[in-house]
Specification:
Helices cover about 45% and strands about 15% of the residues. By secondary structure, the protein is an alpha/beta fold. It has one domain: NAD(P)-binding Rossmann-like Domain (Rossmann fold). The two termini are about 30 Å apart.
Length: about 280
């Protein structure tokens, strides 16, 4: 079978762990070359080194527009173009009831989860418009699709990513650029484990959490999101634009209540939070 991303050039923010790292590996397996951009610079370099000549790493604080621009510039200077921008960096962010939410923590949630997506879309568009082609993908969450499944700042930012995806897709369609989002359910990653169990190593707790809530009898894996990203990054999705692809095992249609107001780690509902 032909490699689905053969010759394509990608930038992945939040690429050093979790969904981002798995997507970087899958993109390379499918023939792409990848810039792994992450604030965790040493981990980003580890991931890139494991992928050989098909990957580069760069330290990237996605709340700094210049850092996001530099990650894209690295892809262009190394390989000559940009075909895929995956806005994937994330945090759990501000936790607590609305009355107790700290304003500085709220602003950080918006910075990491929403403003970074704006920066990625903006600077990817500058490269892709002259090419008249490209795919921009952003990680949102089922919390941004149905609400009530995450902290208030997280939910607000992820809901805004869905809206921004539609708006940017509408503008960039004329240039042959597809702009879409992925809304994960509970994915076993270190960040999600920190949110659910208060310990980034307790992936077992997240796996059970995911299994119990999916309605399908098994847990999700980061590869489920990576495979969705491959589809949205490939020419197979050339007529898919402005769409949010929900990957949650049916959880968002199964209902269920969430506990998200407490500041206790174990009371935070995990909703696609590791990027």
């Amino acid at each position: 079978m032909a490699e689905r991303l053969q010759g394509k050039i990608a930038v992945i923010t939040g690429g050093a762990s979790g969904i981002g790292a798995e997507t970087a590996r899958e993109f390379v397996r499918q023939g792409a070359k990848v810039v792994v951009a992450d604030i965790q610079a040493s981990l980003a370099h580890e991931v890139a080194s494991s992928l050989g000549d098909d990957a580069r790493a760069i330290a990237c604080d996605v709340t700094d527009e210049a850092h996001v621009e530099s990650a894209i510039a690295l892809a262009v200077s190394t390989w000559g173009r940009l075909d895929i921008m995956f806005n994937n960096a994330g945090i759990i962010g501000a936790v607590g009831s609305i009355a107790d939410t700290d304003s500085a923590a709220w602003r950080k949630s918006i910075d990491v989860l929403l403003n970074s997506v704006f920066y990625g879309c903006k600077h990817a568009a500058k490269v892709m418009i002259p090419q008249r082609s490209g795919h921009i993908i952003s990680t949102t969450s089922i919390a941004g699709v149905i609400g009530g499944l995450g902290p208030h700042g997280y939910t607000a930012a992820k809901t805004a990513v869905v809206g921004l995806t539609k708006s940017v897709a509408s503008e960039l369609a004329q240039y042959g650029i597809c702009v879409n989002a992925i809304a994960p359910g509970t994915i076993p990653t270190p960040l999600t484990a920190q949110a659910v169990a208060g310990d980034p190593t307790r992936l077992d707790v997240v796996i059970e959490h995911s299994r119990a809530r999916s309605g399908m009898g098994f847990a999700a894996a980061p590869s489920d999101i990576a495979h969705a990203a491959v589809y949205l990054a490939s020419d197979e999705s050339r007529f898919v634009n402005g769409h949010t692809l929900v990957v949650d095992g049916g959880r968002s249609v199964n209902g269920g209540s969430a506990r998200f107001a407490s500041s206790d780690a174990g009371m935070v509902e995990a909703s696609g939070s590791d990027h």
